Amino acid sequence: MKKYDVIIIGGGPSGIITGATGKKQNPDKSFLMIKEEEKGLVPCGIPYVFHDLKEVSQNAMGPKPFIDAGGELLVDKVVKIDKENKTLSTQKGAEFQYDKLVFATGSEPSIPTFIQGYDLEGVEYILKSFNYIESLKQKTDRAENIVVIGGGFIGVEVAEQLAKFTSKTVSLVEMEKYCLYRAFSEDVAARVDTVIRSTNIKLFTNNKVQEILQNNGKVKAVLLGDGTEIKADLVIASIGYKPCTGLAREFGFQINENSAIVVDRYMRTNVEDVFAVGDCSSTIGFITGDSDSVMLASTATAEARILGYNLFHINLLRSFQGTLAVFSTEINNVTFASAGAIEQTAHNANINYIVGKFEDVDRHPGTLPGTSKLFVKLIVSPQNGAIIGGEICGGKSAGELINVIGLAIQKRVTIYELISYQIGTHPLLTTAPTKYVLIKAAENAMSKIK
Amino acid sequence: MKKYDVIIIGGGPSGIITGATGKKQNPDKSFLMIKEEEKGLVPCGIPYVFHDLKEVSQNAMGPKPFIDAGGELLVDKVVKIDKENKTLSTQKGAEFQYDKLVFATGSEPSIPTFIQGYDLEGVEYILKSFNYIESLKQKTDRAENIVVIGGGFIGVEVAEQLAKFTSKTVSLVEMEKYCLYRAFSEDVAARVDTVIRSTNIKLFTNNKVQEILQNNGKVKAVLLGDGTEIKADLVIASIGYKPCTGLAREFGFQINENSAIVVDRYMRTNVEDVFAVGDCSSTIGFITGDSDSVMLASTATAEARILGYNLFHINLLRSFQGTLAVFSTEINNVTFASAGAIEQTAHNANINYIVGKFEDVDRHPGTLPGTSKLFVKLIVSPQNGAIIGGEICGGKSAGELINVIGLAIQKRVTIYELISYQIGTHPLLTTAPTKYVLIKAAENAMSKIK
Questions:
Q1: CA distance B61 to B16
Q2: B354: which of A301, A447, B60, B91 is 20 to 30 A away, CA to CA?
């Protein structure tokens, strides 16, 4: 039986980065990655294959960084794990011994089994599988009336892309008051909806899907709770993702209430020498210390770097306790981004907070071509002025501006410090130095503490 | 004689922000701003009036935030200061008493008196004056052969804008090996030159101006050190700026070797109750602790906020000692940005450093429309891994990405911390999470320390 020092199950971003980082740190150790499909996809790029990228192959992602570092790849499926003897078996009958085992099994779409008609022909999901998405793209190309169920990031992005085909009628159904309501406070989420309504998307919020209606076993319409019937030849259900942890559960690893494999801050499971990383592993909110459920490639890769450096010893201390979710997206050329706490999460966690806001433009003077409005909101602890969250609505610069806020949160920057910090500005690139949005938002928060 | 609690001399960014911040903090105190011209300009926007902005008035900036906060304005010129009696007199004969006095007198172009012909008709400067720039714009509109002397930020930006008029021949002369060589290390400065050469600008580096040649007292050509003669009907000399500190010098305030008014970290001069802020005041390099000469609106406004909060008492501690210069610009749609130490400054200050680099694209997958290359370089102290500088060459996102680096420097983030930090990524906005440029550059630096 062949033995590897490290076996990684899964070849998404967390598997690739764990493998590439770990192998570079430990060139003498042998690494094997076992993944089910040869071709992979950039997970967050999937919505864009439906329009902007034109071809699914444009969004391909393989384990090249891992292979280049000297790792080996096997396309197969792990079906059995023997924790005691540190061995595993695959569907094709291979057996391996391991010293360290890493679950990087990712996540899969939640299936809305509670909606009648969820299993009809014409009801699809955004599964992170190359072949599945290629087939789904062909279906969307043919479809005329598409209903997307779920106004989270994936649902909104897929709907936005499909609505760029003006020949199609695209509807989006969200049960909450606003789309993206888990990532943005009410005022920013309201802006999200305004932007969505400015596209060709027909948006139904505050509305549940009652039933998916059929004609000879095929989807014909979606019936909403308020009685609205939306004609449909294709339904894409995007109501969330759940960790792929069937294998881990079956072979005795500890699983939490969100179906995630329980890990500590060095990604260690309850079994020695076994780790879990990325969407399949548990996360802890950085403010509350409570278990939460963040599934983002950026979070997964941060965890994977920590694991990659620390597979054999704790080499690189984890510098930030807990998971900071940093979200960003672009809808109809407007960027929305958030990091850390939003008003709802702070409120629900019983955290005392104040809000600092500022709105300006992202060029100066604002008469320059390409200028967008830029709105920044900071969530601040009034006790010490620590920044615990931020939200942005603006142009493309918001994509990196949210990382200034993210770094500020992780490094425990207070508004008092931020106000006297030095920033870089340029007419063609940023707000004016006299009213740089982050600093003005910090000043606004400070004025509320006094 | 009318008395004001605070009198500010100058109405540029530092005067406006000192006044607006100070008045908001002290609504019961009376504030007067004395400035020489009614209309002001966004200083860093000046190059763009020559092409992109079309009209000089599009780049106007007035003291509105200060007036809105309740400050008073006088268009006049201070000609005399009596430190002992705390009074001043103006050109128009007004006299005022003050409790606190603020120099915010800014900077003016250095005149190349060492070049024969510097005073000919047709030799102009980038003076921060509305009326002067309006007149200069008319001259550039008429000129056919323009020579810009000096490849610093202003010279490069003015040349880039003028070269957008394809009917004009625009030449740029820089005596150093590369343009922007004070803000970028050699490898990045070389990229700057490559981009400049991709425009219609004729670039002459490593070349001094020997003489400005005339025809009946008017400019006709520029003669370079290597004998090249460049035909010219307009010369714009942009060889740097110097603090406007004649008034302060005349009335006994301490001036340093760079002609700047000497201040401490709360912008206090050597005379009690008198402050200086912005380009006219001295700066201290954050790494070396030595006096340097940074003149940037972003630095000026950071100082102005510190002063505004602390005019009457130290209310808000200065959170970062020394001046961090953060530069950014865009040349022919390529963004260049730097923060803190570059290789030359680190070398000259005898600082031990290592470099971490990474290059990728600013979208993921890179097949998305609008993708630019993105190169990041970090300057790192090998002893503790602290980030002391960074440089970027990329698309527009570099304008805020440099502020992530700037915050990291100011908050003393190490590469070890950065590697496990969580960042936000999105296909349309950033590098991929698997190879986010900052983290990869930090990893590259770390690999050199081991």
A1: 10
A2: A301
Please tell me what DSSP assigns to residue B217. Answer: T
Q: Is A283 exposed, middle or buried (0-12, 13-18, 19+ CB in 10 A)?
A: buried
pLDDT tens digits, residue range A314-364?
989 888 888 999 999 999 999 999 999 999 999 999 999 999 999 999 999
Going A165 to A168 to A172 to A178, the CA torsion angle's sign is: positive
Q: What CATH class is the domain A2-108+242-310?
A: alpha beta
* Cα of A44 to nearest chain B Cα, Å: 6
Tell me the shortest Cα–Cα distance from A69 to chain B, in angstroms.
14
Mutation target among B403, B437, B448 for the A interface, most CBs of A within 10 A: B403
**For chain A, domain boundaries:** 2-108+242-310, 111-239, 333-449
Full-model pTM: 0.96
Residue of B nearest to A18 (CA): B434
B420 with A319: Cβ contact below 8 A = yes
Please tell me the CATH code under which domain A111-239 is placed: 3.50.50.60
List chain A residues with CB under 8 Å of B296.
433
Report whether CATH 3.40.190.80 matches the domain B333-449. no
Q: How close is the nearest chain A Cα to the Cα of B316, in Å?
A: 7
Whether A365 and B61 lie within 8 Å, measured CB to CB = yes
pLDDT digits (tens, 9 = 90+) for A235-282: 999 999 999 999 999 999 999 999 999 999 999 999 999 999 999 999
Q: Are the folds of B2-108+242-310 and B111-239 the same?
A: yes
Cα separation of A179 and B347, whole Å? 52
Of B430, B433, B439, B438, nearest to B371 by C-alpha is B430
